[in-house]
Structures
1.
Amino acid sequence: MILISVEGLDSSGKTTVAETIVTYLRENRIEHLYLHEGELRRDAKSPFLSPFFSLKDPWVRDLLYAALTISTVQNCLSKVPPNTVVVIDRYVDSLWAYTDEHSNYELSEYVREFVHAISFDAPIPNLTFFCNTPLTEVERRRTSLGESFNLEFERHTLKQFRERLGRAQTRVVEIHPETSSVDIINEVRNRLRRF
């Protein structure tokens, strides 16, 4: 299995990049699987898992997201054919960046340590695209969608991404809004040749 992750802030262009990759794989009849958290949210009928657990609770949401994401990828390792390309929109680097001690979430130290520990023990992507979109553009996109934007939080989260991904430079390709689809596809092609 070849694992490609797409990381970055909310509204940085991750889904667009992932869909560009998936379109290329489909058009070239390369066996692939696309994992995207948005599909889970759209299919959810209720924000409650039970009368006791709300997905609006950051602890529940983040722990379940972390466990589900990593479990899904580990399951793929054992069940999908070895030549399958798995493209995941948000993965372990996001878990790490969004759950540090300065995040907006009121997570206990124990929960934070757990999420960080599993983010280091999860299968590592062969290739990670990091959408490094300027904060002014992220803010514009979010406000146009009616979503909130906290500059201090976003700066900190971006710093966390850079710290985490700086340790893994051989698998990381930084892309910007002006990066062309052709450049993204060429990077995918080059990496697939190596496997």
2.
Amino acid sequence: MYKNYLLTITALAFLLPNVLVEWGKKGIFDTCQQLVVVVSPRANSVNARLYKFEKTGKKWRQVGAAHPVNLGKKGLAWGKGLHKAKPGLQKKEGDKRSPAGIFRFGTAFGYAAADTLSLKLPYIRITGSQICVEDSDSRYYNQLVDTTRVQRDWDTRESMLRKDEQYKWGIFVRHNLPPQPEGGSCIFFHLWRAPGSGTLGCTAMAEENMLSLMQWLDPQKEPLLMQMTESSYRDYRKKFSLPILVSP
């Protein structure tokens, strides 16, 4: 029963459709009470900063200090999320770019047992048989699967239990869902190899910052991720009265 529960959580984390409600009458920013903002100075930058905000009524306040994160080795490209399609470079499978845009967070994951830390997010304990499928010809593209429970139909995949422990703690980012072929897959927040070390498309950070984020996020507060260049965020901020980013 426990394994079936985990599979159900995983499927929901990956397959529930994103809804493009950026400019709706009751938009995503109206109901969002937690906001994670990741901004880089330029689209090709690896180095970025992460800010956390919480809203009470209509007033945003920053939670903790901003901290550095690493983006893809080639920076950012517009991904597929809650935002409307944008002109410019688009996220593709294997492009070594992190997705820019507005996204929901999915399931948290880690190598430790679920009772090791207190989380509000759903949590999956990673085992050696779990992978994330990167082959867009697979029925499991952009999904976490247990190789002991499904029939293999993929050529490329990401092993979740890594010797370098970059996935010791992490959170799924709900990008490219439902999955479109070659649209990019297996996007996570996870631990970094070192400051300034670019990823293959994820967003990476120090362990203490990863744990702080995991423990803070609350699905009941409808958290959002805004990941983009500083100039793109300024455009959104003016339009939707979002918080000002104060440089550390």
3.
Amino acid sequence: MTASPSFTAALLLAAASASAAMAGETSTAPSGTYCGQLSSAGVLSDAETHFETSADGTVVGKYVFSDQGQSVDGELAETGDDGDGSDLTRSFMWRDKYGYGQLIVTFTPDFSEFDGKWNAGGSEFLPWNGRRCHQTIS
């Protein structure tokens, strides 16, 4: 039995619409937990960074990394994006027990990864990156 051209076209259109809808859900803003690393005290440490997007589009987050065997928890508050209209590059203020500073991250178009750099009070920028993972910060 052969499907009619109109049925095949309708099926393809439905699949494309569903795919676009799913892509829209996952690619409009950063959300979820990212596993990666950040540089702290001259050492690349494992880190989990969690982002959430509020109804107004502002991104907030939290993170945890290991510093000499001790967990360090921190918070992120968005301070802006780079103004290019894509919302892929965003600026945050980080805060933890060591102080606070700036974090600038650039996400991939599907928000599955980010490449970032952080500093404290105008010091040299250091790496901070992540890839979407399924772990949670407790």
4.
Amino acid sequence: MRLAYSDDGPGSAVILLHGFPLSRVMWEKQVAGIGSIYRVIAPDLRGHGDSLHPKASIPWTRWRMM
């Protein structure tokens, strides 16, 4: 499983996790704001953004997730 992430800035690490069904792109303004002070790590969780999705025997649809 390959997860995409951004890793920017010096200092202590701050990890930003996105919600469903978003991606790390939602954190761009926060990364720009604190990235000069903190090391900001923002992953795309499995199946979101640029991360690969797990293989499933039954295809995922929006109806299955409700």
